[in-house]
Design brief:
about 280 residues; alpha+beta; 2 domains; about 30% strand; DUF7912 domain-containing protein; DUF7912
Length: about 280
């Protein structure tokens, strides 16, 4: 259980996730801590951006058996779809998916968040028809936007308590399942606000060179040089990462020509921007 008391991280592929059940409490809610059981990753952007997440069940979920014969907790995993801005997941924003109790659970989430410091914001919120609530919290003053384990635990506990109280009144279902997490490595960045925040970090930028729908989409690993606000233009430069280096110049930094290269890109031609993972 020593691992459970430390910083528990979820890698992007969730390989080897293990459930740990803390000692039983008087509450009827079940609380789980999950961590990745794989060997620790090498020091890189990925380890810094790994998402921590906590799950709570109002009632016991029946155990299920996977195709490989392993016993699972019966949790409905989020769809592995291409993220989009505003999807309630890696793209942030709110996605209630026409769930009738969705707006009420969102208002409770925002109510609970008011008990925390102003630098912790709601990055994403999603509800599903099967009774799952996904919350991702963003910490604006933390380099990678990840709240501490203690902050996530505290929010999870307070929010679940309020859901149970309101559920007992019949305003929302009384058997909702909750996952609270940090945004994680796959978060999409909004142009221009988020890229200003992460301007000192390499970013993977997907873009087109004109507005035409059939225009070929390109991508690259860049650093933000500056933003021309009046013309709504981002100016990017090549990031000094392996992907941009000449393979024939092994171990050497970017050439002068590469360092001087710039890409001027209007806000509306950015298709997808995310933090670069080594």
């Amino acid at each position: 259980m020593a691992v459970a008391r430390g910083m528990i991280k979820r890698m992007s592929n969730r390989v080897g996730a293990v459930l740990l059940r803390p000692p039983t409490t008087p509450s009827h809610s079940h609380f789980f801590l999950l961590y990745n059981h794989s060997p620790p990753p090498s020091k890189s952007h990925l380890s810094s951006f790994s998402s921590t997440f906590l799950r709570s069940f109002s009632h016991h979920f029946p155990e299920e058996t996977s195709d490989e014969g392993a016993t699972t907790d019966g949790w409905e995993e989020e769809d592995e779809t291409e993220p989009k801005i505003g999807d309630g997941g890696d793209g942030g924003g709110v996605a209630l998916q026409n769930v009738p109790w969705g707006q009420r659970t969102l208002s409770i989430a925002e109510e609970v968040l008011m008990q925390f410091s102003e630098d912790i914001k709601l990055f994403a919120f999603k509800t599903t028809p099967r009774g799952y609530v996904y919350v991702r919290l963003d910490k604006l003053t933390e380099e990678y936007g990840c709240p501490s384990m203690e902050e996530l635990e505290c929010y999870n506990r307070k929010y679940k308590q309020r859901l149970d109280e309101v559920g007992a009144l019949g305003e929302i279902p009384d058997d909702l399942a909750l996952e609270v997490s940090s945004p994680g490595a796959e978060r999409l960045l909004k142009v221009p606000d988020d890229i200003i925040r992460f301007k000192d970090m390499p970013m993977r930028v997907g873009y087109t060179e004109n507005i035409e729908s059939n225009c070929l989409e390109r991508d690259g690993v860049f650093l933000l040089d500056f933003i021309e606000k009046d013309s709504e233009m981002c100016v990017w430069k090549l990031a000094d990462v392996r992907e941009n280096r000449d393979p024939l110049r092994k171990g050497r930094p970017l050439s002068r020509k590469q360092r001087d290269w710039r890409l001027k890109l209007p806000f509306n031609l950015h298709r997808m921007v995310s933090l670069y993972l080594v």
